[in-house]
Amino acid sequence: MELWKRICSETTTEINLLAENWKYLLTGLVFQYLHGLAARGVHYFHRPGPTLQDVGFFLLPELGQDKAYISETLFSSIFISFALWTFHPFILKSRKIYTVLIWCRVLAFLSGSQLLRIITFYSTQLPGPNYHCREGSKLATLPRPDSVLEVLLINFPRGVLYGCGDLIFSSHMIFTLVFVRTYQKYGTRRSIKQLGWLLAVIQSLLIVASRKHYTVDVVVAWYTVNLVVFFIDKKLPELPDRSIAAASLLPLSTKDRDSRTKEENHKLLNGNSGDPGDRRQRTQVNGKIMDDGNTLHADSAMNGA
């Protein structure tokens, strides 16, 4: 019963936030489609060729086509785990974030990084190192589209899984680093934060070992995404503190209202106005509450000095 009340209460709060911020969420989701459309479009320009020399290819053994699923499995685990964490306020008592507001930030980070990615991979098309992008593969090039609709539909999900040409920089690393950085700031468990960064490093190595990207695609993602998140985060308003904002977002019950009134009266009787800016110790003299600065004068007056 208590869990159901918590879910209903959180749903009401999130609906109010969604009504105020739906434009930002919709813009971010639309840009996800535009990013997929751009990645599909560059495939038409892709020309397979010899795999470029790459230091990562020399250092990391090739996993092979039969083990390419390993990196995708890890990425899916990171994605699903982060998504579930963003919805934990609906279930858990200890909560620091609002689901709607955290996704507004995440989509802003993703869109900023993806915009730079689109500009980069359209500037220079490299021969893809992935198996389906190499010479001799039927998937390495796309025939001229028969209609605009064929391009707009991006052949989902096959067109996303077997794309070529959208190399610099890695889209998988964009999502991974945005998720890890977001939890680093708003998560509460230190061990999970450390695990997140470790998984990001492992993800980087697996991408190169699977020959899905060149090493430069992963390296560029590491510093570009972190810089994008840093600067966009500076521009965005900070998430409200739930302990303060909850009072304005959720209606108070009669019991909560009476409890808050008693608490405020208790603070007044003990000389604490509740103002965090006024932390001076107070002393009561002859029924009057006086600040530390006036205590000496009061004592002097009482002793006739």
Features:
single chain, 305 residues, mainly alpha, two-stranded antiparallel ribbon, 2 strands, 63% helix
Detailed description of the structure:
The relative contact order is 0.13. The termini are far apart. 63% of the residues lie in helices and 3% in strands. A hairpin with a 2-residue loop joins strand 1 and strand 2 (288-291). With 305 residues, the protein is mainly alpha-helical. The chain has helices at residues 2-43, 55-59, 69-86, 99-123, 148-152, 158-161, 171-186, 190-209, 215-235, 242-249, 254-269, 292-302, and strands spanning 282-285, 288-291. Helix 4 (99-123) crosses helix 9 (215-235). The chain has a two-stranded antiparallel sheet.
Query: For the terminal residues, how far apart are their CA atoms?
Result: 66 Å
The DSSP helix count reads 12
Secondary structure: helix percent: 55-70%
Shape: globular
Spatial strand arrangement across the major sheet: 1-2
The residue-averaged pLDDT reads 82
Structural class: mainly alpha
The number of distinct β-strands equals: 2
Summarize the structure.
The chain is an all-alpha fold and 305 residues long. The chain has helices spanning 2-43, 55-59, 69-86, 99-123, 148-152, 158-161, 171-186, 190-209, 215-235, 242-249, 254-269, 292-302; strands spanning 282-285, 288-291. It has a two-stranded antiparallel sheet.
